[in-house]
Amino acid sequence: FKNLSAIINQIGLEKVDGVVFDLGLSSAQLEDATRGFSFNSAATLNMEFGSRNQESRIRNTEEIVNKFKPEELEKIIREYGEERFAKKIVGAIIKARQTKPIADSRELAAIISQAVPARYRYGRIHPATRTFQALRIATNDELTNLKVALPQAADALAAAGRLVIISYHSLEDRIVKWFLRERQNQGTVKILTKKVVTATKAEMKNNPRARSAKLRAAVKK
Predict the structure, then answer these.
(1) Distance CA 208, CA 193 (A)
(2) What is the pTM (predicted TM-score) of this model?
(3) pLDDT score, position 56
(4) Which family does it belong to (predicted)?
């Protein structure tokens, strides 16, 4: 979606009445064993939203895991995954890859699980969740793309047009929150969601993947 302005121009529109960003993974991507997003299958460390060699891929996930320096890898996992055990996890990855390259997502998840304290292995989320998130963000340069796309979306809106963003982790939500505040302070939009909107208990029961969703919206003045 970083090419939003170009796409709008290509289809011959001057302004649009609404833009919705759903920043999450699709169920099809999660369930695609060739993607490497899931730690439940022995998939190649791919984690690309598009096809190989497409513009969406900035780095190769296998390269990040197997070739990046320890300090580079730790920075990615700590900053993009907000993982408090980043140093322990990186130590385990470095040790494992000295024997042979880490080949698939299940192997990587097992290495991570063994690296963290035992109590962390049986929490609400899988211990590899934050690390996989970090690697996916780094592979696709997701946060930069979001920062580029949001101004394009806001500028493309017609008067009274709506901008709606659904994010799934705090890094994305922070970018969205500050962008909307900045535009509201400039007088170009009005924020419609005073507080972030999250899924109800009933919705989470029917759709467990909605538990992390955070919705914010604004209207063009």
Answers:
(1) 23
(2) 0.83
(3) 45
(4) Belongs to the methyltransferase superfamily. RsmH family.
| pLDDT mean over 160-174 | 96
pLDDT in tens, 15-54: 999 999 999 876 666 666 666 667 777 788 888 876 544 4
**Closest listed residue to residue 1, CA positions, set 207, 216, 198, 166:** 166
**φ, ψ of residue 177 in degrees (nearest 5):** -60, -50
Domains (ranges, CATH) in the chain? 4-24+142-220 (3.40.50.150), 59-140 (1.10.150.170)
Vertex 108: Cα angle to 92 and 123 (nearest 5)? 85
Residue 188 DSSP code: S
- Report which secondary-structure segment, H or E, holds 64: helix 61-67
Give 105: exposed, middle or buried? Use CB within 10 Å, 0-12, 13-18, 19+. buried
* Maximum C-alpha span of the chain: 60
